[in-house]
Specification:
mainly alpha; 3-stranded parallel β-sheet; 2 domains; elongated; single chain
């Protein structure tokens, strides 16, 4: 209800399952959503872990809400691009993180448009292809004065843009 109150159209995957092969049905459901929100407490259930893995494999951004004083070790999950984690002590604190959720939604919209650009064969470079950055860095090293710092900042910003950040 909290997410609905924020103006989001919320669907629970478990309500959609009809008894067919779960992985196929879940994949179909996840392909229709913009992002996934997982609420976790002290233990991360195998079904939630499976759903999160499938969402990640489909390139869906994931917002994990940790509720309670103890939450599972999520370090390995949080290394993935597009996974955000917010912890609150209780459900009563959810209104306090509304701005964080809004930030995640805005970032999700940006990630979605970047993925669309990549599917449309736009000139977005792969982050592994950094030769262009090395060449620009050589040029920046030759610049004197304050302009050098600005050019370096712009190079770093371009690297982040190319990585989808």
């Amino acid at each position: 209800m909290f997410l609905t109150d924020l103006g989001l159209d919320v669907t629970r995957a478990t309500y959609e399952l009809t008894g067919k092969i779960v992985a196929n049905e879940l994949r179909g459901h996840l392909s229709d959503v913009d992002f996934v929100v997982a609420v976790v407490s002290q233990f991360l259930s195998p079904s939630v872990t499976f759903e999160l893995g499938m969402a990640h494999a489909l390139g869906k951004p994931i917002l994990m809400l940790g509720i309670g004083e103890k939450v599972p070790d999520l370090a390995s999950l949080l290394d993935f691009r597009g996974v955000e984690f917010i912890r609150v002590s209780s459900l009563g604190q959810l209104p306090e993180i509304a701005n964080d959720i809004d930030r995640f939604i805005r970032l999700t919209a940006t990630l979605g448009s970047l993925e669309d650009d990549q599917r449309n064969d736009s000139p977005v470079r792969s982050i592994q292809d950094l030769e262009w950055a090395r060449e620009r860095l050589q040029t920046v090293r030759l610049i004197k004065g304050a302009r050098r710092g600005f050019q370096f900042e712009e190079l770093v910003a371009d690297i982040f843009r190319q990585a989808g950040g």
